[in-house]
Amino acid sequence: MTDLPAAEPVSLGQPSLIRRVLRYRRLLRLRPYDTSTLEGRSAERYRRVAWSTVLSTVARVVGMATSFISVPLVITYLSKEQYGMWLTMSSLVSALGPLDLGIGLGLLTVVSDAYGKDDREGARRAISTAGAMLTLISTLAVVVFGVLYFVIPWAHVFNVTTPTAVSEAGPAAAVLFGAFALGLPLGIVAQVQLAHQSGYISSAWAIAGNLGSFVVLLAMIYFQASLPVLLVGLTCVSLVTAAMNGYFLFRRQSPWLMPRLHDVDLRAARPLLKTGSFFVVLQLAGLAAYQLDNFVIAQILGAAAVPEYAVPSKLFVLAPTLLSFVLMPLWPAYRESMARGDVAWVKRTLRRSILLAGAVNIPSTLFLIVAGPWIIQVWAHGQIHPTTLLLVGLGTWTIMNTLNGPFAMLLNGANIVGFQAICSTLMAVANVAISVYLVGRIGVSGAVFGSVISQGLLVMIPEIWYVRRLLRRLTPANPETVPAS
Fold first, then answer.
1. For residue range 435-466, what is the model confidence (pLDDT) as tens digits?
2. Per-residue pLDDT at 14
3. What is the DSSP letter of 253?
4. Which pLDDT belongs to residue 23?
5. Parts of the chain with a pLDDT under 70
6. Strand, coil or helix: what is 428?
């Protein structure tokens, strides 16, 4: 990796801060750099990373803002059972993510390699094969769901009793599952753009999708639409924007990547499945640990109790979510610095990332624990009343991410994924068991304390041990043997 593009000429008397501003502001220019030279390719990578970071942050902020505004609108529009059922369905559909067998993440790796080798044919073959495999999975999923739809007691699954919620349970579940199935093959678009370091384009479409969904939500509420019709409108917006992004990618941006049936190659499926299978383990563990909380609460306490947990949770994930945009780029940076033997940079950056995470998570968490009841009272129009025990549990979980986030990026950079998969799997099993027990004993706050206990014992403590072991094993490289930038 080369240094950043050369800075604008500055006088020696200028402060270092001004020199840094002049140096880094060039990363956000609109015009691409000349990639015919080594320096130009390096500068263009930095420019794309900078734009991806900025637009992904904007997309997430827009998404959180529209979600934040939507909560009081939806709570006053739907009944507690309807809203709780919607939240539970969304959690269950999210839990179906590993149904893609990790093909999307495998495609990201394969296309990245092809991009670095200028292998357009290999990239198109991988994209075509991945698209065919995901289309097949999507079709089979729809067929299986169609058969089971008429035998599943939807009202009992979501534990609803009011006539309106009972009548809407099945159709609403069908809408969300159908949108998920259609979105499987469309998901390769974002992965290909990430592989080509054009994630900022996906983020721009995500911004348009979030704003469009919010407008549709307002329209559906105005016309007093039922829950299934409301979900049809919202899911159509996300599917249409994904399709338009695909058209832009394959027709305008990179037409040579357009999937073709005759490019489907079973030999290309092996690296996709091999690379993606390991990510499936991590996804399943994460989903079982965190996405099933709403389902556990619905089964034990009823769907009406789900918002009491889900709405306060949305507040506490704001800081960790925004922090993730800073931590994520450290993954490849750790990998590169370890390859060069720059151990001092690794240790210094890990220490700084932990301090940054603490500076973001701890003050924001303490503020939410104290002011959370008032914020939620205003935000949810008095419909949600979180207990102090729940807020303390959510705060404890947030502060734990001060170490978990930076440690995960370091271990990812060191390619230590198997250890994380084992810890996450054990944590997920323990999380579900402890959450079921605690929810029955202390109510909705038991779900978050199940996460705190299992994550602390089975993830945080092992990670601290492994990171200390890893840092001791790292040895600085001989400067004479380090490859030139």
1. 999 999 999 899 999 999 999 999 999 999 99
2. 43
3. I
4. 56
5. 1-50, 53, 95, 109, 112-113, 115-117, 196-197, 275, 329-333, 335-337, 339-340, 413, 415, 477-485
6. helix
Residue 257 DSSP code: G
For residues 414 and 338, the answer to whether their CB atoms sit within 8 Å is yes
Structure tokens given for 57? 């942050």
Per-residue HEC secondary structure of 102-155 comes to CHHHHHHHHHHHHHHCCCHHHHHHHHHHHHHHHHHHHHHHHHHHHHHHCCCCHH
Counting every residue written for the chain, the total comes to 485
For helices 306-316 and 293-301, the axis angle rounded to 10 degrees is 160
Q: Which residues contact 132 (CB under 8 A, 6 or more apart)?
A: 259, 261, 264
Q: Let me know if 341 is exposed, middle or buried by CB neighbors in 10 A (0-12, 13-18, 19+).
A: middle
DSSP for 17-82 reads HHHHHHHHGGGG-SSPP-TTSHHHHHHHHHHHHHHHHHHHHHHHHHHHHHHHHHHHHHHHHS-HHH
Question: The tokens of 196 are what?
Answer: 């080509």
- In sequence order, which ranges of 118-249 are alpha helices (DSSP H)? 120-149, 154-157, 163-186, 188-195, 199-222, 227-247
User: How far is residue 399 from each of residues 43, 394, 426, measured CA to CA in Å?
Assistant: 36, 9, 21
Stretch (H or E) spanning 274: helix 266-286
pLDDT at 453: 94
Angle at 237 between CA 232 and CA 239, to 5 degrees: 90
pLDDT given at position 366: 92
Query: How confident is the model at residue 244, as a pLDDT?
Result: 92
Q: CB-based contacts of 142: which residues, under 8 Å, 6+ apart? A: 178, 181
